[in-house]
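Re: weekly structure request thread

Next one in the queue (150 aa):
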Amino acid sequence: MKRILIFTLLIFSASPLLAQKVDSIYFHLYTDSLKKGQHNYINVDGKLSNGRWLPLTSKEITFFCAEASFEGNELIIPADFKEEKVTVRAMLKSNPLIVIERTIWIKKKPDDEKLPTKNEVMKPNDYKMNKEKGKNKKIKHQLLNSSCRA
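Done, posted below.
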């Protein structure tokens, strides 16, 4: 019984030595710019001492942005935001010396791309042909305009 108790104690006391700690943190953004009026997920990954990656959340990271607000990992840019960029800072809660800061641009162009309707998706050949015809018209128009200038 004593041996089992000693063995169990030894295993549990050694487990913190095997635990990996975060050596550094990195932003891995899903986009090159943030959108106004939306929740923009800010992905932060920690690189462990064994070289593996660990996704981090607001439980492990303190986020800061003077120009906008955070809810968890999501940066909320107001719809009427006037600046062209924001600076985001992430700090590891377990080691406040590990900090990363990045400037991220705000998307300027509106999202006016026409997405296919349900019927167009269900008939992919018709939609693809119509889309290609539109592209062909654009290319012909560009060729005509460039040949007229020459």
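The longest helix spans residues 124-149. The first strand starts at residue 22 and ends at 27.
Next request, please.
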